[in-house]
Amino acid sequence: MKWDDRPVCQERYGYLRERPEPEPVTECSVCRAPLYEGEDVYKVDGEVVCGTRECLERYTGAHYTELERPPHPRRKW
Length: 77
Description:
This protein is α+β, with helices and mostly antiparallel strands. The protein has a domain at 21-60. It is built from two helices and four strands. The strands form two sheets. A two-stranded antiparallel ribbon has the order 1-2. Strands 3-4 form a two-stranded antiparallel sheet. Strand 3 and strand 4 (47-50) form a beta hairpin. The mean pLDDT is 82.
């Protein structure tokens, strides 16, 4: 390569080209956020819910909690 030659990689391999914006595939049934190909989602009763715990809790009505051992009743001797 000579000093006055143009760089080949810009035009030939497209390193400096702008990438097109990805198209959303669908949207979350709860928060209406756009969902793209390859994202993690939940499918509940045919509806698509995004992969966040908050949306899943709002859609199903379930809530995330820490498991605790129930107190034992005292025995009378």
